[in-house]
Amino acid sequence: MRLEAVAALLHREFISTERSPWEVLALLILASTASIPTALSRVEERVATILVLLFITLFTSTQSYLRDKWRGVVEVYHIYPIPPAATYAVKLAYTATLMALAIAAYALALATLKSEPGIVVGVVSTAAPPLIYLAAAASLASMIAVHLKSETPLLIAMTTVLSTPILVTTATAQNSILIILSGVSYAIIASIIAELID
Amino acid sequence: MGSAVVARDLWKTYGSNAVLKGVNLEVYGLTLIYGPNGAGKTTLLRLFAGLDIPSSGYVSVYGLKPGSLEARRITATILEKPLLFEELTVEENLRLFSKVTGYNLGEGFALEAYEGLGVRKFLKHRVGDLSHGWRRRVDVVRAFLSNPKLILFDEVNTGFDVESLKFLGELLEGAVKRGSTVVATAPSLSGLEDIASTASFKCYIEGGILKCG
Q: Is B172:B153 a contact under the CB 8 Å cutoff?
């Protein structure tokens, strides 16, 4: 599929959000308010960030394929010659962007509450490496939920299960490169699954 | 002429409910499938589009498996619910699908549909703000963008007034003359005299059983 077509589909995701921003606004507000218990408690920042990442992943999984299903347009992708892997790549890129924005909102809010601007670097260095992996997991869970004609409960369960390995790894390992490479591999495997499922 | 759409002993069941019962069909040109609500018209069309898979039986479009990428390249599907992005304007939708298909509005017979159905005046309107009838018109233009060999048109007389229905008849007739195959469904032939008079096949379906004349 031509790159221009993929770019147009991705552009559509952002335009749709711009014109109907309520879910994304809710995500950003919730991510920001998640900084309050983190600031007030004695929990280690890295652990708190990982928990917030899980929440963000769960939320963004509803903004992927499921959003199109709720709006009644998921069949657009099935009547046009759009390879499933291309659709998956678009959803992955969009989901990753949402997650990055949510993490940024959380980091900025936490830094403001604690009056420590350096916290932003700490949060980003924890959250950035697993971002691709988590976005891939969220999109994959969303795709499977739509394919199985199931919705929220299955989506929550699948997203949690698919995200847990990388979150545990992020909590325990310090090798960011390995985590990023895991994410890329996961995304490639998930796009193959997308081709097989369709 | 070889058949563009072939169905052999096609069954579709949902649980214990058989919606299609051993449908056999080999068509080309313009085919009208009509019958009461719940007869299986839309289900049959969805099988041709690859949006559903049969419970048993065989179906192909131009020798291709429905829903495959190759089949999608030559097929335009127009469902009763328009497949448009409601947050985008008409222009944005058409531009997007233009990029997806690689065809522009000025190529093929999409322009004819665009001019004839009067879609121009709503270019800057969001699709979500349009009435169902106007969304259907935009959907027709969207479908014709890809210069399709096969046009699947569900509920062809829903959402269109008398004038636009007449134009649609001419549009579909023109598509057939250019070598396309059209399969259209409707609850009845009432109001479709123009289309019905040029149809190669008129098939009645009820209770999942299809009879063509």
A: yes
Among chain A residues, CA nearest to B96:
A8
A 26-85 residues inside an 8 A Cβ radius of B: 71-73, 75-76, 78-83
Kindly list the domain boundaries of chain A, sorted by start residue.
3-197
Long-range contact list for B115-119, CB < 8 A, 24+ apart?
B116/B167, B116/B170, B116/B171, B117/B141, B117/B164, B117/B167, B118/B164, B119/B90
Quote the pLDDT of residue B1.
53
Per-residue model confidence (pLDDT) at position A76:
92
Question: Which chain B residues have a beta carbon less than 8 Å from that of A4?
Answer: 99
Residue span of the structural domain in which B162 resides = 5-212
Chain B residues near residue A80 by CB distance under 8 angstroms: 72, 97, 100-101, 146
What is the number of domains present in chain B?
Answer: 1
Give the lowest-confidence range in A19-23, A40-44, B166-170: A40-44
CATH number of residue B69's parent domain: 3.40.50.300
